[in-house]
Write a structure and sequence with these properties.
Shape: flat
Order of helices and strands: HHEEEEEEEEH
Helix content: 25-40%
Number of domains: 2
Largest sheet: 8 strands, mixed
Strand order of the largest sheet: 7-1-4-3-2-6-5-8
Length: 158
């Protein structure tokens, strides 16, 4: 094999390793660099009874459009609710009666937080809590309720 072919293989290998290292760094940072690209942001809180599928770096959307990210999720030891901290751009101002819902990307997909703006004249300030929340719905529990209701219907039929 010639030396120029060996050099080419060496450079291609180095580029592949550099790209792999870049993806590794990005994935371990939780994608936090993407939120910084949104410009100035502020943080809101939302306490959910169940945050299944939500973690740091999860998308925050308004009308299906990604506008921010979840910066952290922690358990409140007093209320036993999962408190999610949401980072959204300063350009998006939400009324105080806005809602935060955990939505699924599909049957096998992940989850995201959907913000539904309300109509109140006052707006949420940085650090405020979104009071109207809906936690994650377990697909398995819904299926079990359906199966149970079908079984009880068959028992009641003569």
């Amino acid at each position: 094999m010639s030396t120029s072919a060996e050099r080419t293989e060496l450079w291609v290998g180095a580029v592949v390793l550099a790209v792999a290292l870049g993806f590794l760094v990005w994935s371990t940072s939780g994608g936090s660099g993407l939120t910084q690209g949104l410009g100035k942001t502020y943080e809101l809180r939302a306490a959910f009874p169940n945050v299944d599928g939500i973690e740091s770096g999860t998308d925050v959307r308004v009308a299906g459009v990604k506008v921010g990210r979840v910066s952290s999720v922690r358990l409140d030891p007093e209320t036993y609710l999962a408190e999610a901290h949401l980072r959204i751009p300063e350009s998006i101002v939400l009324p105080t009666d806005s809602a935060a819902l955990i939505q699924s990307n599909g049957l096998l997909g992940g989850a995201y937080i959907e913000l539904q703006p309300g109509g109140a004249p006052e707006n949420l300030a940085p650090g405020d809590e979104i009071e109207d929340v809906q936690g994650a719905v377990s697909l398995i529990s819904l299926m079990m309720k359906f199966v149970d209701s079908q079984a009880s219907d068959k028992k009641n039929d003569p």
